[in-house]
Amino acid sequence: MTSTEQAKLWLNEPFDAETQKAVELLINSNSPDLDDSFYKSLEFGTGGMRGIMGVGTNRLNKYTLGQATQGLANYILQQFPNQEVKVAIAYDVRHNSKEFGKICADVLTANGIKVLLFKNHRPTPELSFTVRDKHCNAGIVLTASHNPPEYNGYKVYWNDGAQIVPPQDTAIINEVQNTKFDEIKFNGNDDLIEWIGEEQDQVYIDACIKNSTYQNIGKDNLNIVFTSIHGTTYATVPKALRQAGFKKIDLVQEQMVPSGNFPTVESPNPEEPAALQMALDLAKITNADIVIGTDPDGDRLGIAVRNLENEIQLLNGNQCNTILTYYILDQWKRRDKLNGNEFIGSTIVTSDIFFDIAQRFGVECKSGLTGFKWIGKMIRENEGEQKFVCGGEESFGFMTGDFVRDKDSCGSILLACEIAAFCKAHGKTMYQYLIEIYRDLGMYFESLTSITKKGRDGAEEIKQMMVDFRENPPKELAGSKVTEVKDYQEQTCLYLQENRREVMDEIPKSNVLIYYTEDGSKICIRPSGTEPKIKFYFSVKAKIISEADFKEKLIILNDKIERIKKDLKL
Question: For this structure, is 546 an active site residue?
Answer without folding.
Answer: no
